[in-house]
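Reopening this one. Same input as before:
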Amino acid sequence: MTYNIKITDNKTEQAKNLLLFLKSLAGTKDYFFLKIEQETEKLSDNLINELDSRYEHFLKHKNSYKDWDEVKQKYNNV
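Same output, byte for byte:
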């Protein structure tokens, strides 16, 4: 039998401590059966469509875009 435990908010101290504790157990021979795996969040169809649209726009107008280092330098020199 397999059990899944999800920690959905790892920003709180309590969640961080729990995760660290479980990871420390998983690293020992006594808890060989404990596996910690991070799931990647799936993107919604709306978000995928939005990202595709932005990428298409970039490809059509890439000469009007500036390199990130150039933009960063401009604002750091202000």
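So the earlier flakiness isn't reproducible anymore. For the record, The mean pLDDT is 91.
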